Amino acid sequence: MPKPLPQPDAESREFWEDVKARRLMLQRCRACGRFRFYPRAVCPHCLSGDFERVTASGKGSLYSFTVCHRPAAEAFAADVPYVVALVDLDEGVRLMSNLIGCPPGQARVGMHVEVVFEDASPDITLYKFTPAGSSSSVEGLLMMR
Ligand SMILES: [Zn+2]
Fold first, then answer.
1. What is the C-alpha to C-alpha distance for residues 115 and 134, in angstroms, rounded to an integer?
2. Which of 44, 70, 89, 134 is least surrounded by Cβ atoms within 10 Å, i.e. has the fewest?
3. Which CATH architecture has domain 57-145?
């Protein structure tokens, strides 16, 4: 059973194209200077439609997480236990993702993490997070799949 994948739309298509190119890009409002996530046409802070796209550091910290021992859907059954994570990027936005390259029992709120990219289909690549300093070895493991 295939896993559900992101369905890029007019507002998120560039974001997902960048993720496929292994770049995590954020929108930053040109009026108030704040970053936002998810991609959208209007700033949620000041309602300006004027924004630029900026390459994110890919670094952040684990805000919260849960370890899933029962899969959310049958497609995820082979992955249990896996970590669903809320990550605060250094740019000040929060993303939901997975923590990988780390035994679930070693996940800790506040731990430093960095982005890695995992090809999920010919068209879609996903951003995930791994403990800071381990992204090169985790990317190597993902490439061997
Ligand atoms: Zn704004």
1. 10
2. 70
3. Beta Barrel (2.40)
Read off the pLDDT band of 10 (50, 70, 90): very high
Distance CA 114, CA 62 (A): 10
Domain residue ranges in the chain: 8-56, 57-145
Model pLDDT, residue 143: 66
Q: What would you report as the CA-atom Rg of the chain, rounded to the nearest whole angstrom?
A: 16
Nearest to residue 126, comparing CAs of 111, 116, 138, 112? Answer: 116
Instruction: Give me ligand 1 centre to Cα 141, in Å.
Output: 39
**Above 70 in pLDDT, residue 123?**
yes
- Rounded to the nearest 5 degrees, what angle is found at the Cα of 57, between the Cα atoms of 115 and 17? 65
Distance 63 CA to ligand 1 centre (A): 24
**Model confidence pLDDT, tens digit, residues 28-79:** 999 999 999 999 999 999 999 999 999 999 999 999 999 999 998 999 999 9
| Cα 110 to ligand 1 centroid, rounded to whole Å | 27
Q: In whole angstroms, what is the distance from residue 105 CA to residue 85 CA?
A: 13
